[in-house]
Amino acid sequence: MELTTVWFVVIAGLWIGYFVLEGFDFGVGILVRVLGRDEPERRAVITTIGPVWDGNEVWLIVAGAMTFAAFPEWYATLFSGFYLPLFAILVALILRGVAIEYRGKRDDLQWRSRMDWLITIGSVLPAVLWGLVFANLVRGVPLDASHEFVGTVGSLFNPFALLGAATVTVLFVAHGAIFLALKTTGDLRRRANRLASWCGLAAAVLAVGFLGWTQGIRGDAASAVVASGAAVALLAGLLANRRGREGWAFVGTAAAVALAVTSLFLALFPLVTPSSLDPAWSLTTVNAASTAYTLKLLTVIAAIFTPLVMLYQGWTYWVFRKRVTVS
Amino acid sequence: MDTLDLARWQFAITTVYHFFFVPVTISLVAITAGLQTAWYRTGKDKYLRLTKFYGKLFLINIAMGVVTGLVQEFQFGMNWSDYSRFVGDVFGAPLALEGLLAFFLESTFIGLWIFGWDRLPKKVHLACIWMVVLGTQLSAYFILAANSWMQNPVGFRYNAERGRAELTDIWAVLTNKVVLVTYPHTIFAAFMVGGAFVAGVAIWHLVRRPGVDTGAFRTALRLGAVIVIAAGAGVAISGDQQGKVMTEVQPMKMAAAEALYESEKPASFSILTVGTLDGSRELYSVKVPYLLSFLATGHFQGEVQGINPLQQSYEKLYGPGSYKPNIPLTYWTFRLMIGVGMTSAALAVLLLWATRRGRAPNRLLVWLALPLPLLPLFANVFGWVFTETGRQPWLVFGLLPTSAGVSPGTTSGEVLTSLIGFTVLYGVLAIVETKLMFRTIRGGLAGTSPEPDQPDQPDAAGKPLSFAY
Q1: Complex confidence, ipTM
Q2: Which long-range contacts (CB under 8 A, 24 or more apart) does A188-196 make?
Q3: What is the pLDDT of residues B416-469, one digit of tens each?
Q4: For chain A, what are the domain ranges?
Q5: CATH architecture of residue range(s) A3-320
Q6: Does the beta-carbon distance from B469 to A46 stay under 8 Å?
Q7: Distance from B236 to chain A by nearest Cα, in Å?
């Protein structure tokens, strides 16, 4: 495989990791006030993601840094082109991170309630906006001959992108609800389980629409097969959830998120940012990439350290595998 | 203001703000790890209580450091996309290393440390915080390697066809002589901040609440003071080496730091110079002869190049234009960095002397020590403002002017929106953070049981940790 293709796969892998992992903690964040009826319940809800959310977020930072290193042109176009959505995502992530860390630092109900609102807002916004950004990325954005974004913020709000935003958000909520059902006990677990079923169905309907439409815009046999796989995984997960098999249900939604993102990247390949003005002005894995030396170097580093990271992150999930009870 | 100015202001504000939390975090995590190790080795309760107390303050800080650090990475692509296109091949590699080797380590093991008190064996739990220490050190090294490349680009070739710098030797980038001196200087400077913080908090407690946890806070006070003094010595030695490297690779920065307009041999160090408003002529000055020659070159008779001859040689090399940084800014930040840093080391010596052999600190000392935690912090900030503005007008020295790095497609409205947004957000967060810090400091040491719960106890798994949420 070409090194540029290898790196397209790596970057896609980092985004998949990010959406699978932070996807459920965004979902949990959105549900803090919905499922947590009082302070002890909300505290239990946040404790389910407490030890892991920070590590999950690093997948985003590394995806960004790796894109900078392996595809500088892509990084430059993506981040300057989606300027305002990214600004809003950053603000949301800052508020969310601070709120999660600070909520327990004061023994004051009003303070905690305020922090819970910030966690909710800070989780909804990135979910919606990442959906918007990725849908636009697949659809193509106005790039000129020098790969410079020449559109406006308004051009990002089109029906396809809005459907993408809705799909990602509802999918994350379902994914988060199943994680909560998996990690809690008693009444909270029952409510999470029930909510997951409804959100999961809504997510399935939206996802079929969105991924189908993606196939209409661009896509091939491979991305279509993977997209169907995402739908099957989601439905299987929901079925497992109905039967109270939450571990399998979580595997199902995780696989659904992973496969859905994979199908988007497959549809995109070999482009990294299509130009909606002239296909010749699109950024591709080849014209956006770093030199062979840099890619080789990055390959060695990634080959050594990615498995290591997955190993110790996996260990974290193992250490905190038990359910959180409300007390 | 145009996009360039706004983008520069945004970079300055977000970076300086981020850097308020970085040195505290780097040093406080190591000090916390040291305290926990002391508890592990001696079993003394006071070390455990100090670990939890300073550990909590560390966590409040790192939360801010992490979230404001997010902005730094995104900002390169958002505001400086042409810079990203130009340097990505080189600059991206240390950034990728930082993410993969350092950030994952820090974030994962912090989670394990916070939530693992009751769930991990003591030894493993202790190892977790040392992993965080390792992560912060790696992170500092890689990001400083990336920054040092901008000060002194090495290990690359310029590809004229693509109009970008391309990496040819990663080892050269990671062992750039600038990073080899900048890393120790920055780390020692960070430890001055952490030591001063630990000592400052401790003395406040000793005086405000005499008789409460005196033994523990005395230990913390003296430990903090010793750290400030030792790190101060490290800062001085590494700073001296850094001056020589800087003179070699960025002579204009050294000339600007001294406001030395004409070359001198031997050159004297200016303690204080009052110049004309445009900074082109001096009105009054106090100088130490030969000292600048020694600082810059290692010889008392060495020649130090002045701003004017350097400007002429740069014009010959790079074409017409001004190659002078903002001279009053570089001159004053350089002096303030050294002066404020030395003052904090002196205060630490005073504290150590005043508390010798069981002596209790008095109120006067508290008033003297009150600004102590802030002094090295500001010295750190002055140092960064100096080194970054001293590089101007270059983004990458000798290769890419700052004006050429800004995003061409981004409108000034967008940059202004995010500039105002971040500034307001950061202002609010500063208030929240400071109040929370003071609350936690006032709260003092929590009463801890001599032995924490044994791991793998059935009920330990289910209960949410009071330490965290």
Answers
A1: 0.89
A2: A188/A35, A188/A36, A188/A41, A188/A44, A188/A45, A188/A326, A189/A323, A191/A35, A192/A31, A192/A35, A193/A241, A193/A244, A193/A246, A195/A31, A195/A34, A195/A35, A196/A238, A196/A241, A196/A249
A3: 999 999 999 999 999 999 988 888 888 888 765 544 444 434 343 444 444 455
A4: 3-320
A5: Up-down Bundle (1.20)
A6: yes
A7: 34
